[in-house]
Amino acid sequence: MSETSLAVVAKKYKAEIVRRRLATLGILRTSMKVFSDDEYVYFPVERPPNPDELPELITGDAKIQEATFNKLVLKPKTLKEAMMGTLDEELIKLVPRSFDIIGNVAILELDERLRPFAKDIASALKLVHKHVDTVLLKAGPSTGEYRTRPYKVIAGSGNTLTEHIEHGCRYRLDVREVFFTPRLSGERLRVASQVRPNECVADMFAGVGPFSITIAKMQPSCKVYAFEINPVAYKFLEENIRLNKVEDRVTAIFGDVRHNYGILEKRADRLIMNLPFSAEKYLDVATKLAKPSGAIMHFYGAAEDENAVETVKFNVSSIIRSLGFDAKFLWAKELKEVAPRKVVVALDIAISMR
Ligand SMILES: C[S@@+](CC[C@H](N)C(=O)[O-])C[C@H]1O[C@@H](n2cnc3c(N)ncnc32)[C@H](O)[C@@H]1O
Q1: Distances in whole angstroms, Cα of residue 200 to Cα of each of 81, 265, 278
Q2: Is the C-beta atom of 275 inside 6 A of ligand 1?
Q3: Which ligand 1 atom is at minimum distance from the Cα of 230?
Q4: Can you give the pTM of this predicted structure?
Q5: Among 159, 189, 209, which residue terminates a domain?
Q6: CA nearest 294: which of 259, 266, 268, 255?
Q7: pLDDT, tens digit, 9 for 90 and up, residues 128-178
Q8: What is the CATH number of the domain that holds 8?
Q9: Is the CB of 174 under 6 A from ligand 1?
Q10: Is the Cβ atom of 179 under 6 angstroms away from ligand 1?
Q11: Does the C-beta of 210 come closer than 6 Å to ligand 1?
């Protein structure tokens, strides 16, 4: 697209000086593309500068005339910005500010009122995030033992096999087949930075390995046991261990952690229990994996009431005490609302046998 504008036309050898003067005056039009011919450079301007402002007009090194410029297509910075002009004001307010991007797959969650515009929103998202190929719409919650979620493809090739990079670690995964959320990225770093040299760590619900691998990369002298029951997630876990060159530090174990905890050569200094809706059922297994003299547990639980942290703490401490262990809460945080009034809670707990 092109447009005619008033222009300052500067001799080539003075062009940079003129450009700077016009920019300082604040009259350079940034929505059009500067161009040149053999002799002159053409600058689109909001108004003609007077000779006091641009002495090159007196020396004959610059002149003012009209010229036709190509318009610069400015890339929208946010999804909301990209949808301006397509949706009315009320609907624009509902366009999500944030969404998950896993490798080159983006995942949208849309208000009912935006559903008829899902494809337009997905195309706009691809305009803002050029590396995104497939755009998925959440079509239900994460469910079942594998914690996978149904999705609807709303843009792109539909390929959900991707590679995601987080804290310098690479994860190959298929978004449809395994659980993975980039929202826990901060958590993984927080947990991994607590691991001390030579620790033995049990990642009881490892998925494709983000906790295990971040820890192994950050603390090379540690030993991590990563348990995973979903055969597809396990395959990616093994692949990611190789991809990140931590085969000497991370052992992947396929199957239910309840039936496989005996594989550990020594008891764990640290346990990661990232299975928010069922982790409590595995606290007995955790106490069998943990060093009796003391271990740190990173526990992820969920509750539906307003005091989610206190509810989860109460439930966890009752179970741990019933198993003959003491529990001391070191840290707690509400992570995210997964559904109306359902809150995921992260707890760091020091446990030791009574
Ligand atoms: C909520 S996901 C967390 C995955 C990973 N920690 C992460 O941050 O991406 C829980 C994972 O535990 C696995 N899982 C569920 N029950 C299990 C069990 N009894 N033993 C081993 N893995 C299990 C699921 O297949 C799933 O991959």
Answers
A1: 48, 9, 24
A2: yes
A3: 25
A4: 0.83
A5: 159
A6: 268
A7: 999 999 999 999 999 999 999 999 999 999 999 999 999 999 999 999 999
A8: 3.30.70.2580
A9: no
A10: yes
A11: yes
